[in-house]
UniProtKB/TrEMBL annotation:
PANTHER family: BETA-LACTAMASE-LIKE 1-RELATED, PENICILLIN-BINDING PROTEIN. Residues 119-419 form the Beta-lactamase-related domain. Keywords: Membrane, Transmembrane, Transmembrane helix. The keyword Transmembrane applies. It comes from the Eukaryota. This is Beta-lactamase-related domain-containing protein. Gene3D superfamilies: DD-peptidase/beta-lactamase superfamily. Belongs to the beta-lactamase family. The chain crosses the membrane at residues 37-57.
Length: 470
């Protein structure tokens, strides 16, 4: 193309020099003006969207009305909400494989929380760790394994009773039977697998299902001694239940029930595991995960064990016998870290298909406060952009806490002898670290989003300018 005389005088004779438009030309001036206006509008739009987003996520939700009864459909609505896109929640970046430096630096807060509980009166021994992805990124031990042997603190392989954390193993047992087709559906009536199971239901004709039966009322334990609390069998328990009446309609309200988990574990083990619940869990969960110091038989506990204490001194080592699927197990922080990686989806060992592991952790029921949620054996706290999934346990002389945030691949375990504070310690640690991860990943995602949008805008501008030149 031959340049005009005016163009030549503006850009010189060299053919390598780019010929810029003459801004004095009214047509080209209008074009430049439109581009500037478009860029200013885009920038303003980004600013408004960012301000609105920050304002939205920092608003406190109004307190829910505390009704005496709860609509069971709320759980379904909550689950639908959590599994569908929400216009006010931005998807966060995927947690990196290595713990980010900012989160690494925040681990000192776990030390502060741990240290704050060391002075609790009656607390004898405490051990804990923080798990990220497939590794332990923080650990700490405190106190004594045994008051009678000063100078010997617990370590990550010291055995403690973990009480209701046992329910996690029972839930995995049930889901494995579902995966292998031994049971058809979690919502099957329990009497399908045990015809002798009958409970009086004065409310409706609805059946109690396999989905761990919280609605079975937990009556007094069938105890013959202080160290053997449930030396009974399925036949005896089922006979007792025939005279038991439900306190609320099935599925209406959650009810914490050791009896419910013991019943589901024992009935299904009798039918599908040669009546050996403990042996099945040992072979199919503990051994594959390498949980060498975890078990049910109190006579086989490691010599590296913490002695339990209560207000009266050394607590009795209680054997829960028939109720073992609900409360019997003992373990270590190192072993429970391996269980944690299974649930986070970072373990090299596969016990359940990943979709079933995720279903195992899904919410089933939500309280009217809008944040307290129950799952299959879990207590879940919905924080808005993430959920803290917890399981705690207590038996005489011991307490245990197990908590994690699936979205962040982050969790913690705390085991204690002497006081019932393990849940408070582990929940404080995980909530504190989760806030750091939440802010970090959200900021990272905002930066990625702005970079992508800016890149797209620049590409569009270049194409537009190229079109104008033609």
């Amino acid at each position: 193309m031959t340049a005009t005389s005016s163009e030549t005088s503006s850009v010189g004779e060299s053919p390598c020099v780019v010929a810029y438009p003459d801004v004095t030309s009214s047509k080209e001036a209008r074009t430049i003006g439109r581009l500037k206006l478009a860029l200013e509008l885009v920038s303003l739009g980004f600013l408004v969207m960012t301000v609105l987003f920050v304002w939205q996520i920092t608003q406190k939700r109004p307190a829910a009305v505390q009704n005496p009864t709860v609509d069971p459909l709320k759980a379904e609505k909550y689950l639908t909400f959590k599994t569908s896109p929400c216009p006010i929640m931005m998807e966060k970046a995927v947690p990196p494989w290595l713990l980010p430096n900012e989160a690494q630096r925040s681990l000192f807060q776990a030390d502060i929380i741990f240290d704050a509980f060391e002075g609790v009166q009656g607390l004898v021994g405490m051990t804990g760790n923080v798990v990220y992805q497939d590794r332990v990124v923080w650990r700490k031990n405190y106190g004594l394994k045994d008051k009678n042997h000063p100078g010997y603190p617990p370590d990550q392989d010291t055995v403690f009773r973990v009480a209701s954390i046992t329910k996690i193993f029972t839930a995995i047992f049930v889901f494995k039977l579902l995966e292998t087709g031994r049971i058809d559906c979690l919502d099957d009536p329990l009497e399908k697998y045990e015809p002798r199971f009958q409970v009086k239901n004065p409310f409706n004709q609805q059946k109690i299902t396999i989905r761990p039966p919280r609605e079975v009322p937990c009556s007094d334990s069938y105890s013959y001694s202080k160290t053997h609390l449930c030396p009974v069998n399925n036949t005896y328990v089922l006979q007792q239940l025939k005279n038991t009446e439900l306190k609320s309609p099935p599925g209406r309200l959650p009810h914490y029930s050791n009896l419910g988990y013991a019943l589901i574990g024992r009935i299904l083990a009798e039918k599908f595991a040669n009546n050996d619940y403990e042996g099945w869990v040992q072979r199919n969960i503990f051994h594959p995960l390498g949980m060498r110091n975890t078990g049910f038989d109190l006579t086989r506990m490691s010599s590296n064990k913490a002695v339990g204490y209560d207000d009266d001194g050394e607590a009795p080592l209680v054997d829960w016998d028939w109720a073992a699927p609900a409360i019997q197990a003992y373990s270590t922080t190192n072993d429970l870290y391996k269980l944690m990686t299974l649930l986070l989806g970072t373990s090299s060992t596969t016990i359940l298909k990943r979709d079933l592991v995720q279903q195992l952790m899904k919410p089933d029921f939500m309280y009217p406060d809008g944040t307290t949620v129950f799952g299959t054996g879990w207590e879940i706290k919905d924080v808005g952009t993430y959920s803290v999934v917890t399981k705690s346990g207590f038996v005489p002389g011991y307490s245990a806490g197990f908590a994690f945030v699936p979205e962040f691949k982050l969790g913690a375990v705390v085991l204690i002898s002497g006081r019932e504070v393990a849940w408070s310690v582990v929940h404080s640690i995980v909530e504190t670290l989760a806030k750091t991860m939440d802010a970090l990943l959200l900021r990272q995602q905002l930066q990625i989003g702005l970079l992508q949008t800016t890149t797209s805008t620049l590409e569009s501008t270049v194409l537009y300018l190229a079109g104008c030149r033609k």
